[in-house]
Structures are given as structure tokens and as C-alpha cells.
Design goal:
CATH superfamily of the largest domain: FAD/NAD(P)-binding domain
Oligomer: single chain
Strand content: 15-25%
Distance between the termini: 44 Å
Number of domains: 2
CATH topology of the largest domain: FAD/NAD(P)-binding domain
CATH class of the largest domain: Alpha Beta
Number of strands: 18
CATH architecture of the largest domain: 3-Layer(bba) Sandwich
Bound molecules: NADP nicotinamide-adenine-dinucleotide phosphate
Strand order of the largest sheet: 3-2-1-4-18-17-16
Helix content: 25-40%
Structural class: alpha/beta
Number of helices: 17
Largest sheet: 7 strands, mixed
């Protein structure tokens, strides 16, 4: 290690919110700094494109801020580059003064119950990626001929999945929901969507605006059992001690629904609180799910935990989405904390192991792969700024490692390996094509979901 002699160059891996906010913080702290934002897809924005629900366009409008970041001097987008396959972490570390890992939480958590791997049992995250047109998931199929569906978990992803299943396809047709999903949802036979929460309404992870939306859908009755809204002593105490008003507001919304007369609507969203799935049944595919009723008790640390009783019920569901959280994955050449599913770090400086304070020089982390899969888009702004503050102070202290002086070495390496690297201008080409295709149908855009098609459109436009 020695002091750097050239002006610093930083590579950011992953172009979701944390990647863009890291770039923004760098640009603010070191105007004109050279940043290469690397993504495995030719299309940027991570979960803003592949996760945020299509009927939440306001949340997606954060991409306008990302566009401004991409327009700053020194910024390059290196799309269609798979770190770990096309180029290794060590090769990147040899070519940049610093690397910020912002590759998010790519997979999902499982329940660990019998029958979970039966056809018809899916991760909610896969369904989300499918309806949002993520290229890796575009070819997936979900059996929407089923009348009863269960969604396990009651976070905001569960709200999104339940809403997309419940919403009339005519309404979804005005969004940028992927064409293949629109066609499938248009034919959907789903009538009953069961939201299964292992704890009570006070502990529900969803936020009130997202919860409330379920009760505002045309052609949908929301069914809440008033018994589930009678709070146990532990939940009463927890609610009284909470500063966060979200649980109280959720409770108010749920109480309103419990008192609301049913309309005999075509679709129902049914809440099952204090219930955990214990088994999925079926021979060739999911035909039912047994849930056990839980009682809640204090965990002795201000929280409330679910304890199974012996009361069970079998629900005749034919499709199950587990929505119990995303999970971070390890990357070759980077330390990993398997237990937490994050890259171990001290306030954004990657450390050599979980619990260690020994930093790996030049390696930083931000976003969900730093702190776990929680928080909204804006949470990543603060998180990335904290990381970049460490990086900038390391630059000032001269503690980054010396690297090859020439930025063109990364371009040469990728070219030598036959990697078709796509640029920000290439993304703008794709963006324009998607919007033009959408305009013809009265939609915001029609997403291109095939990487080969993206590359061929880019190649044509470059000619
Ligand atoms: P989440 O908010 O952490 O919710 C996970 C849910 O799964 C919780 O209800 C949790 O219950 C439940 N769960 C976990 N393990 C379980 C198990 N073994 N059995 C049964 N239930 C289990 O995660 P998420 O919904 O994936 O969302 C991830 C983050 O993205 C969140 O911060 C969310 O707010 C954000 N997000 C925001 C929006 C938006 O703003 N519109 C949209 C989507 C996602 P317990 O509480 O009992 O653990």
C-alpha cells in the first residue's frame, strides 16, 4: 500500500439506488471524480426498475435524479458487465483506487417447511421480478388459473404482490407492468388472496399507505377477522411504548375494514393474523397449506414473538408466494457474513470478517448488501453518503492502494474478453425505444425483457 499519485478512480458495482446515491455523494465530495458504475444488465436502476411496483410511478420518478447524476463529468456506465464472471473483484481492485459494492440482496429467504419446493410455491421476489420484466425472470410462469393464493408475510413486498394479483388488468394496462405479465394477469382466475402474518397487526411490517391501498381497489372486498384485532397484553404494551405511529395507523385501517360491510366483489383479500404456515400439501403441485395459530408473548426485550398453539387450519390454496424478505448473496473475492447475508463492514469500510475491524483497503459497501434488506429507496441515500464519507477520508489520508495509472486498462481487459460493454447513451437508446413502444399503446413504456434484443437494438443504433 502507498499513497495514490493519480486522481482517484472509483468503480461502483450495482446501479440500483445505493449505487447511484454513492455516485452522487462522491460527486458532491470530489467534483469531477472518475466513476465507473458497473451493472450486469444494459438497463440501470436495480430494484427501482425491477422491484418497485408498476402502479407506483411516483416512487420510480427517482430515476430523474439518477439521470442527473449520470450526466455529471467523470461518470461512465459500464452495462452488461458481470462482476465475478467477466471480470473479477481482484482485477477491478487492481484498476481502481476504490470499489464500492452496491449489488443489493439478490435472492430470498425461505420458510424451511415441508412442501416448500412443490411447483406452485414461489418466492414473492421472483413474481415481482417477473411482472417488472427483469430479463432473468421473464420466462418464469405462475399458475394464475388457481382461484386461491396465499402470500406469506406482511411487509410491503407482500402488499405489492397482493395488490398486483387483486387489481383489474385493465388498470394495470396503464402502467409499465411487463407485457407477458399483463397478458397472464388478464387471464387470471385468482379470486381469493390470503395474506398470512405470523404475528399481529401491531407487528405488521407494511407501511400504512401501502396497506390502505388494498382497501381502495375496485372489485375487491377486504376481509379482516375482528378476533385478530383484539390485542394481547404484549402487543398493547408494545404499542403504548412505540414512537412510530405506523402500527397505530395500520390498526385503525384494519379496524375500519373489519367494520365495513362486504360488497360481494369478485375478488377478496383475506388477512390471517397470528398464523404461520407449517406445511404445503400436494402431490405434483401445491394443493393446500396448513397454518398454525400463534399466540403472542413478550420477548423480554421490548419485542413480541409468536409461539405456536395446537390450533391448525388447512387452506385450499393452489399458489403460494413466500414474502419473508430478500437475502444478500456472497461475491467471490469479497468477505461475507453468512449469518446476516451482508458484506461485513465498519460503517461502509469492508472488513476482513464479520465482527472484525480490520478494513480491506479500497473496498467499500453500501445499500442492502451493507445493512440488510430493509428500508425505502431514500434510506440508501444516507447509507451511501456514510460509506462515501469513509472513502473520501481515506483518500485524504492517502491510505488507498496504488493502482495501474491508466483507466483504459479496464476497457482493454473487457474488450479482450469479448464483453459487449454498454454505455449510458446505449441505455438512453433503449429507454427511448421502450417509451415509443408504450406511447403507441397508451402506456408509459413497454419494457424490453430480453438482453439479446437490448444488445441488437444498441448495435443498430450505434451503426
Ligand atoms: P419486510 O418488510 O422485512 O417484511 C418481511 C415479512 O416477512 C414480515 O411480515 C415478517 O414477519 C415476515 N416473515 C419473516 N420470516 C418469516 C417466517 N419465517 N414466517 C412467516 N413470516 C415471516 O420485507 P419485504 O416486504 O421483503 O420488504 C423489504 C424492504 O423493502 C422493506 O423495508 C420494505 O418497506 C421495502 N419496500 C418498500 C416498498 C414501498 O415503499 N412501497 C415496497 C416494497 C418493499 P415478522 O415481522 O414477524 O418478522
Amino acid at each position: 500500500m502507498s499513497t495514490t499519485t493519480t486522481s482517484p478512480r472509483v468503480a461502483i458495482v450495482g446501479s440500483g439506488p445505493s449505487g447511484f446515491y454513492a455516485a452522487e455523494a462522491l460527486q458532491k465530495g470530489a467534483p469531477g471524480i472518475a466513476i465507473d458504475l458497473i451493472d450486469r444488465l444494459p438497463i440501470p436502476f436495480g430494484l427501482v426498475r425491477g422491484g418497485v411496483a408498476p402502479d407506483h410511478p411516483k416512487i420510480k420518478s427517482v430515476t430523474r435524479i439518477f439521470d442527473r447524476i449520470a450526466a455529471q463529468p467523470g461518470f461512465r456506465y459500464l452495462g452488461h458487465v458481470r462482476v465475478g464472471q467477466d471480470v473479477t473483484i481482484d482485477e477491478l481492485r487492481a484498476r481502481y483506487h476504490a470499489l464500492i459494492l452496491c449489488y443489493g440482496a439478490e435472492t430470498d429467504r425461505t420458510l424451511g417447511i415441508p412442501g416448500e419446493t412443490l411447483p406452485g410455491s414461489h418466492a414473492a421476489t421472483e413474481f415481482v421480478a417477473w411482472y417488472n420484466g427483469h430479463p432473468d425472470y421473464a420466462a418464469r410462469t405462475f399458475d394464475l388459473t388457481q382461484r386461491e393464493v396465499a402470500v406469506i408475510g406482511i411487509g410491503n413486498v407482500a402488499m405489492d404482490v397482493a395488490r398486483i394479483l387483486a387489481k383489474p388488468a385493465t388498470v394495470l394496462a396503464t402502467t409499465d407492468l411487463a407485457e407477458h405479465a399483463l397478458n397472464a394477469l388478464n387471464e387470471s382466475a385468482v379470486q381469493t388472496i390470503r395474506l398470512v402474518a405470523r404475528r399481529g397487526p401491531v407487528q405488521a411490517a407494511c407501511t400504512t399507505p401501502e396497506l390502505r391501498e388494498l382497501g381502495e381497489l375496485d372489485g375487491v372486498d377486504v376481509i379482516v377477522n375482528p378476533r385478530d384485532l383484539e390485542l394481547d397484553a404484549a402487543s398493547e404494551a408494545q404499542l403504548a411504548a412505540m414512537e412510530d405511529r405506523n402500527p397505530a395507523k395500520n390498526l385503525e385501517v384494519l379496524r375500519g375494514w373489519a367494520a365495513r360491510p362486504l360488497t360481494g366483489a369478485r375478488r377478496q383479500v383475506v388477512f390471517h393474523f397470528n398464523a404461520s404456515p407449517v406445511e404445503l400439501h400436494g402431490t405434483d403441485r401445491v394443493e393446500g397449506m396448513t397454518i398454525v395459530r400463534n399466540r403472542l408473548e413478550s420477548d423480554g426485550r421490548g419485542g413480541v414473538r409468536a409461539v405456536a398453539t395446537d390450533e391448525t387450519q388447512t387452506l385450499p390454496v393452489g399458489l403460494v408466494f413466500r414474502s419473508v424478505g430478500y437475502k444478500g448473496m456472497s461475491m467471490s473475492g469479497v468477505p461475507f457474513d453468512d449469518r446476516r447475508g451482508v458484506v461485513p463492514n465498519a460503517n461502509g469500510r469492508v472488513t476482513d470478517a464479520a465482527g472484525s475491524v480490520t478494513a480491506v483497503p479500497g473496498l467499500y459497501v453500501a445499500g442492502w448488501i451493507k445493512r440488510g434488506p430493509q428500508g425505502v429507496i431514500g434510506t440508501n441515500k444516507v447509507c451511501a453518503a456514510d460509506t462515501v464519507a469513509q472513502l473520501l477520508s481515506d483518500i485524504a489520508a492517502g491510505t488507498l492502494s496504488t493502482v495501474a495509472d491508466d483507466v483504459s486498462t479496464i476497457d482493454a481487459l473487457l474488450a479482450e474478453r469479448g464483453v459487449t460493454v454498454t454505455s449510458w447513451a446505449d441505455w438512453q437508446t433503449l429507454d427511448k425505444v421502450e417509451q415509443e413502444r408504450g406511447a403507441a399503446l397508451g402506456r408509459p413504456r413497454v419494457k424490453i425483457t430480453d438482453v439479446q434484443e437490448m444488445l441488437s437494438i444498441i448495435a443498430d443504433a450505434r451503426r
